[in-house]
Design brief:
3-stranded antiparallel beta sheet, 1 helix, 3 strands
């Protein structure tokens, strides 16, 4: 179980700052942030990166 907070905020440069914070039920968590051009592709890439980071964190130790 985990909770996730995803935000997209405008940057002064016309770009968008994408921020994610994930908290795991057993404690700990991770955070990602990037600044990108505003597009669906950028958001999809960010969410994919987040998913991969969560999967790596939740993988059993012997698989790392």
């Amino acid at each position: 179980m985990l909770t996730a907070d995803l935000r997209a905020t405008a940057a002064a440069s016309g770009r968008v700052v994408l921020t994610a914070r994930v908290t795991f039920a057993g404690g700990g968590g991770l955070a990602l942030q990037t600044e990108e051009e505003p597009s669906v592709a950028a958001m999809e890439h960010f969410v994919d990166r987040l998913g991969r980071a969560v999967a790596r964190r939740l993988a059993p130790q012997e698989r790392r």
